[in-house]
Amino acid sequence: MNRKCAYGICGADIYAVPMKTIPHLKFLRGRESGITVIEVMVSAVLLTLMMLGLTGLNTMCRSIIRSQRETALASYTVERAAENLRERNWSQVSSAAGVQTWLQGLTGDGLTQLNAPRMKVTVAPYPPLVPAPTPIVVERAANGTCTITSQPPSGFSLRSLLAVRVDIQLKWTSANGNRERTRELASVVSLSGLLK
pLDDT tens across 17-37, in order? Predict the structure, then answer.
């Protein structure tokens, strides 16, 4: 053989050479080339651990997505409520009975799809007066009933003002761990519309 090859073996001749003559395959001597039951069990355990890790990751990702979906729906609901209130006339925005009637009739996906949604609307003078009068506060319970929890004294009316600050708060119980979550929006509404 006048060709120079590694270990005296060239190209296709490798399969014809006994294993004893190839030094880097010495570990296969005296054994069959296969896998043992222990190796199969170890790889099954590793595969199981990997699958459990992926299942936990999947569960966590679904929980985060559900939470973000709730947050987006709540934000949309609060923004729509502010737009809806802005469309009302001044006497409805500046009186406790008007805010209560508006809040009672408010509908939206967030009020039907969120778990136990509760809304609170606060209407106060803008710019703030000194001493600050009692604001109008109307709350809507999860069952849809609305109650006036505070309003200015009978000698003071928000109707005489040019602008009011409206705070809308939506609370609900999250499907993730039954935590209470909140979204809030504040807006200034003037006698002639929304102030920017």
Answer: 555 555 555 555 555 566 788
